[in-house]
User: Fold this.
Amino acid sequence: MTDPNAHPDHPDHPDAWTDRYDDEAGPLVRLYAMTAGRARTANGAERVDLMAIVRARPDAAPPPGPLPPEQRDLLALCTRGPRPVADLASDSGLPLGVVRVLLGDLTAAGLIAITPPDAAPQTSTRPDAHLLREVIHGLRAL
Amino acid sequence: MAYAHSDRVDSTADFTADFTALKLLIAGGFGVGKTTLVESVSEIRPLRTEEQLTEASRPVDDLQGVSTKTTTTVAMDFGRITLRTDLALYLFGTPGQDRFWFVWDELATGCLGAVVLADTRRLADSFPAVDYFESRNIPFIVAVNCFDGIRTHTPEAIATALDLSTTTPVLLCDVRDRDSGKDVLISLVEHVLAQDPGTAWDQGR
Assistant:
């Protein structure tokens, strides 16, 4: 097994974030170069919710060729377990808009599935009381 | 906003298939302590989003000589509290600057509730957030950040000054203190729990 930290493109690499973004200069790579210039996708992934849960599809056929590095990184993160879109953006060090487009590509390739949260726009959602009590209990135990 | 890269160590957290993610918002005026609160209670990590520049932001972002620039990068406070392998809370700090109001609607969608952080020296800075959540019937609490640990106002006086509904909790906190920050979040979830589950929360729209 290779050490993920050995590769500077790996999202866990300590330099992955600083390689791509400089606080003074801004993005070091033109952001949408990673999406071949696209800000939108055929499947509407650019509008996917921050809290939509992304899962790697265990039944997915392997991609026909090597994935671009950013897509490969995102897929690697998804393979470790379900996670929200916001987590993927933070963990990959890529801006949200770029991540959404790349997730659209991975969905179109049948490699991931995205489950949107059950919520109408601009409303809050109250889960059941049992779950809320578990949250309170969990916070107290921290 | 300063981010410490070393705080990203828990980005490897692996959740189980039945994972539930809940979203809480941390709102309030610029410089009131939102970042500090997220830092003290969660695994804070950078989250950047690039947004379309709106008409409203043009006087602020000097675009002279960069006429092709149509997006700007917005950094948000973002933190995760992993409660179990199948349950995590996600905290989103709403941008403090007025020109990023448009980000709020996306953040508010599907949120459990919100904390409005207030500073008694600049109480008016929290009016927009209070109005926002009231108008959308999103449950919120007001947490007054006492930077110096000295209570200068009672929660009752603050509730009156903010013209809050009697059911909206107001508490004093020190956002630098982890236990105090935890108490704020617990109060919010308890407030959410106290809401009538039969009420449609989008009635105020």
Remarks:
- Helices of chain A lie at 16-20, 69-79, 85-92, 96-108, 129-141.
- Residues 96-108 of chain A form the longest helix (13 residues).
- Chain A touches chain B through 52 residues (CB under 8 Å).
- Residues 13-18 of chain A have pLDDT under 50 and may be disordered.
